[in-house]
Amino acid sequence: MSIDWCWCYENPKEAASEINRLTALCEEQEADLEHERLRLAACGVAALCNTEQSIAEQGITADNPYYSASYRDICDAVKREMDMKSALSQAREEVAELQRQLDTAVLEKNGAKERKAHWKDRAEAAEQREKGLREAFALYGWHSSGCACNMGEGLGKKCSCGFEAALAAASEESQ
């Protein structure tokens, strides 16, 4: 862009020099903004990783120009979530096995009246486990706040983030 004169400068060369300086500054700021956009995109990708394989395929290292402290924080949080999900799954398997063993022992030992009481207790225990799972999912943010069902708070829509499916699987395992 060439400008020969500007009313705020007495010398046209000064005006042209200032315009060139400001244009270069804008271009530099646009490049910085694009770099920050890409760093933010890297954070978004990291937040979506939820398996060791996805982390290995999509993760970036500290020498990458789009790596940031925020990216590392997100990766750490995702790793904690994966560890908690793994521990929860293992605990569910252990509880299910113990429950099967207990059921076998109880059914062999007790008659119909005791079995009825046993199944009632088991149903109450399942309800308590579901309540605990709901609290754990809410505490650790596993249920998306943007989910259609909004954790059952009156919207009456089907769960879209998988939380309800996880509860249903846990309930089926306990039965």
Q: Could you explain the architecture of this structure?
A:
The longest helix has 41 residues, at 69-109. It is built from 5 helices and no strands. The model has no long low-confidence stretch (mean pLDDT 78). It has 2 domains: 1-87, no CATH class; 110-174, no CATH class. The chain has helices spanning 12-48, 52-58, 69-109, 112-139, 163-174. It has 175 residues and is mainly alpha-helical.
Summarize, please.
This protein is mainly α. It folds into 2 domains: 1-87, no CATH class; 110-174, no CATH class. The protein has helices at 12-48, 52-58, 69-109, 112-139, 163-174.
Q: What is the general shape? A: rod-shaped
Beta content = under 5%
Instruction: Provide a count of the helices.
Output: 5
How many separate domains make up the residues? 2
Number of strands: 0
- Given helix and strand content, the structural type is mainly alpha
One letter per element, helices H and strands E, the order comes to HHHHH
Give the terminus-to-terminus CA distance: 75 Å
What are the segments in which pLDDT stays under 50 over at least 5 consecutive residues? none
Labels describing this entry:
single chain; 175 residues; 2 domains; 5 helices; 0% strand
Explain the layout of strands and helices.
Blueprint: H1 12-48, H2 52-58, H3 69-109, H4 112-139, H5 163-174
